[in-house]
Design goal:
The structure is a homodimer. Chain A is of the alpha/beta class. Chain A folds into two domains: 141 residues, Quinone Oxidoreductase, Chain A, domain 1; 95 residues, NAD(P)-binding Rossmann-like Domain (Rossmann fold, 3-Layer(aba) Sandwich), CATH 3.40.50.720. In chain A, strands 10-3-5-6-11 form a five-stranded antiparallel beta sheet. A four-stranded parallel beta sheet of chain A has the order 14-13-12-15, sandwiched between helices. In chain A, strands 2-1-4 form a three-stranded antiparallel beta sheet, with no helix packed on it. Chain A starts with a strand and ends with a strand. Chains A and B meet through helix 3 of A and helix 3 of B.
């Protein structure tokens, strides 16, 4: 099968590679899930990997298949797989367990290991290819109704994590009930953060460079948030009028 | 009785003021505790208040008695005071409750009020005087054996709070067990932080400007910590050799 890969350490080495199609047996214990890729997002991380700023090939390979923003459909499952069946839409997680205590208790996104494993980024092939086979532990089922936007699940998980951690941190206050939030940046991540905070019931003010109206300011307003251009309103002025903000999400860069 | 006060807003206005000696009746419900000041520390905050950088007089006064690092001895107690008696050594808290939810649940050090109350700093007279009368709610008993260092209890509470909050924040990790800490600065607060972290069982590296040996480096080592001068070892070098640091306490300025 075809795959899009880089030679880590070599700038602008993105190329078409060839790999054998994986089989269910690649996963031990009859727990294999074979997934056909439907979509794969490409983002700044992929650009930086192609610029050879980081990225490492899996052991035994001189190339790394890129792509981590994945969305696929189950094609076959091993005999010991429950909860997933052919036809299901799925997203695979990107980071995989290492050896630290955080990895061992299932929070490998918090790993303290120096060496870590991320599909399409570090030591594991990515999803810019036709198929992958994996253990259900690392596969998230996406409702069929969301198939048009399922490829956004992985990037959405990034601001979801940040906002969840902010809430976890503020549990120290015992009675923290945030009411107003600011989101700095109205790109994809800023839009995600706006959406998450609106779903948590907050009044959200989202800041972008471009004066409204344009697509993303329309989307911010469709989410029930306020859009402000920093060209016309400074953060300080906005905080006086629409704040104080209990939570600020930084998504400018 | 005599008191040392400033005229808030007027630089270098520190002067000797006269106030009536407080009585137990100043506190309602028979809960008065009359305390004679034994010692009062003077720190950067007092210097800044004398420079008129902040500070506000209590309602009805044009001056503010300064001093918040207090240590005293109980002289008399009202009929409804339990747990304190004449002769006890005590420290009074500095911040007092306002109106926010944090004030109402007893964590007024976390107040979100714009207007707040701090003895010797904002809207309440301080302790650079001969006596105060207060409710036992705001009075901390200090063991007699600690009377020589009791005046350090209030400044010690500052790094105690910071380190406690760091631990509270990291509870989000569920299994956080810090082993190594760095303290930046070896002044009084840096020494306190070193001591607190050693008492929590951490390996501590404390950084100061001055090459050892001198008094504070000796004190750091007496606490079982490592002293390094940033003139001879950079933080980056030290982190490589003695880190990675799980917790860093900033006390440089």
């Amino acid at each position: 099968m075809k795959a899009i890969a880089v030679f880590p350490g070599k700038p602008n080495s993105m190329h078409l590679a060839e790999l054998p199609k994986p089989t269910l047996d690649a996963v031990p214990g009859g727990r294999g899930v074979l997934v056909r890729l439907v979509r794969c997002g490409v983002d700044g991380t992929d650009k930086e990997i192609n610029a050879a700023e980081y990225g490492q090939a899996p052991e035994g390979y001189d190339f790394l298949v890129t792509g981590h923003e994945n969305f696929g459909q189950v094609e076959a499952v091993g005999p010991n797989v429950a909860g997933l069946q052919p036809g299901d839409y799925v997203v695979a997680t990107v980071r995989r367990p290492g050896t630290s205590i955080y990895d061992r208790i299932g929070t490998y996104d918090m790993t303290t290991d120096d060496v870590y494993f991320e599909h399409g980024i570090n030591r594991l092939h990515g999803f810019l290819t036709e198929y992958y086979a994996d253990d259900p532990e690392y596969i998230v089922k996406v409702p069929r109704a969301l198939r048009d936007v399922g490829v956004l699940v992985e990037p959405l998980s990034v601001p979801e994590k940040g906002i969840l951690q902010a809430y976890e941190i503020q549990r120290r206050l015992r009675v923290w009930r945030p009411r107003k939030a600011a989101v700095l940046g109205a790109g994809t991540v800023g839009l995600f953060a706006t959406m998450i905070l609106r779903l948590r019931g907050l009044e959200v003010t989202t800041f972008g460079l471009i004066p409204k109206p344009y697509l993303n300011s329309d989307l911010v307003e469709a989410l029930g948030a306020r859009y402000l251009s920093t060209r016309t309103t400074s953060l300080r002025e906005a905080a006086t009028v629409y704040g104080p903000f209990d939570l600020m999400y930084e998504a400018t860069g």
